[in-house]
Amino acid sequence: MQLTLKKYTLNLKHTFRISREAHxxxxxxxxxxxxxxxxxxxxxxxNPYYKISIESMxxxxxxxxxxxxxxxxTTPEIxxxxxxxxxLSNFAICALDLAAHDLYGKLEGKPxxxxxxxxxxxxxxxxxxxxxxxxxxxxxxxxxxxWPIYKIKLGTEDDVAxxxxxxxxxxxIFRIDANCAWSAKExxxxxxxxKDLGVEFLEQPLKADDWEGMExxxxxxxxxxxxxxxxxxxxxxxxxxxxxxxxNIKLTKCGGLTPxxxxxxxxxxxxxKVMVGCMTESTVGISAIAQLLPQLDYVDMDGAMLLNGDIAxxxxxxSDGKVIxxxxxxxxxxxxx
Length: 337
Fold this sequence. Notes:
Distance between the termini: 22 Å
Shape: globular
Order of helices and strands: EEEHHHHHEHEHEHEHEHEHHEHEEEEE
Structural class: alpha/beta
């Protein structure tokens, strides 16, 4: 296989702010894997929270370039096993795994969802994320993009008041993501107030390692709670089953589609709701997530919708939330010139 690596800086439409950080741009790495005249593309973003940079990922991947050149590629799963054995970070593995899946589907001439024998007749609608800002700014973002489901980023001392103010301007479903900013007591207190305001569920209100607090929340919260920062890799799923109503899988964090498929299967066996979330990423990464849609209860794949300009073509999300799947095989990704 022939390897290509390219760094992009994605410009956001608006400042994206959560409880622990804010940014106007997002650095991302796009990996290309080519074989027999076909090229598959994958993506992974830089992430200071997890100490991942574009440079660190590029160094990891270029270190195995000669091995990739001679690798006998048959399935993405076999390549994923090789990458694990080489000790790459999950972010670097994700970019390569997504590229391998896109390549595999293009070689087979079929979209991944078809290869996995799933139907796109029914699938969840993505939420649209409203980052932390002044109430006027958050309202302006909702008016700019009318949407049936909003994910609201919180983590202030006035979170319920913010939701109450936003509710005055829309009948949309709300999902709340506090990004680890609340305590168990605060979560339990806020839950009934937020439920009355049309909130569907809470995402990761407590710190990732506060399992004792989450056990209290599980028994006392009137709203379901979905794990995000507490559910990074496959081994986290079982533990989350005792402390959450569902899990949010991030491809970059777990290492791509290969482990994500196993995490989905395990979560469903345990009776957990399954969500897949995105980073602030391009259509390259979003198109890979979209292939999983028929297997999900919820999805957060608005990353490319938050950009001021995209770098690729692939899955298209229409103004009513409908997903237009490309006929091209794999994830269906082509890069813009």
